[in-house]
Amino acid sequence: MPISDYETITVASDRVTVDLLVWRRYKRYAPGIYEKTLDVNPHLAPYHKVSPFLPPGVQVFMPIDPDIMAGKGPDMPTVTLFGPRA
What we know:
Elements: E1 5-10, H1 18-26, H2 33-40, H3 45-50, E2 59-64, H4 66-69
Antiparallel strand pairs: 1-2
């Protein structure tokens, strides 16, 4: 995952989670970004001990992956509930 930069996001409302911030920024499945966001934001750990929601005013450093932004994500395997097609 080639992280090119980081963007600072300030939580402005109630009931905001890290995964919601990732979804709002990328607007698509972004594998590994949630984990990378938690890695570069150790100051969020005390909030996650109490609740998944971040308090308003907290700043979050969001990693920017230009490949995901351009729509070039990793290929995901197709999973089916009914087995392979004949």
